[in-house]
Q: What sequence folds into this?
């Protein structure tokens, strides 16, 4: 059994079963990780106030068969980002991109610094996030027709699409990048 205490950004939380939550965290020491918070959905859960998206938390994770979140404490809510509607929308879109393209358990100190500094300044945006992750839309071509004018990103296929080719694909999760 391994135990980690690390700083993390809460990327997403999903409900599992009646009372549990799976929290997707981007941690300083081990990268993106999904951890189960047992009883996290209960009304008086110790996890509830800390697992908001965009929170910087100190998390204690225990790995046995799976990773379990045992303790969490909010360190920073990044109010500069939260209080600006446009900045909040861009930050949440950036988290969706990160969740789709960053592999699990892949530590990246440079990206961690970029992420925390951008959130602190209220300047996290999807295009810059994609660029740092190696997906620069400015220099990309449509994955279907090879035109230079791309407007969408398909995270699960990791390709860019122009508006015409995106319209041809109906059941595909895409992110608008402009």
A:
């Amino acid at each position: 059994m391994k135990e980690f205490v690390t700083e993390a950004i809460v990327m997403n939380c999903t409900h599992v079963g009646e009372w549990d939550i799976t929290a997707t965290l981007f941690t300083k020491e081990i990268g993106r990780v999904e951890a189960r918070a047992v009883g996290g959905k209960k009304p008086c859960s110790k996890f509830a106030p800390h697992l908001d998206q965009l929170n910087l938390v100190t998390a204690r994770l225990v790995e046995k068969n799976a990773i379990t979140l045992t303790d969490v404490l909010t360190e920073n809510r990044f109010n500069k980002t939260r209080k600006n509607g446009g900045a909040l929308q861009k930050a949440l879109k950036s988290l969706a991109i990160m969740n789709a393209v960053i592999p699990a358990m892949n530590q990246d100190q440079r990206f961690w610094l970029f992420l925390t500094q951008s959130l602190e300044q209220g300047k996290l945006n999807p295009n810059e996030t994609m660029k740092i992750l190696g997906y620069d839309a400015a220099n990309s071509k449509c994955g279907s027709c090879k035109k230079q004018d791309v407007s969408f990103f398909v995270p699960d296929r990791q390709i860019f699409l122009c508006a015409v080719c995106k319209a041809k694909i109906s059941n595909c999760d895409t992110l608008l990048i402009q």
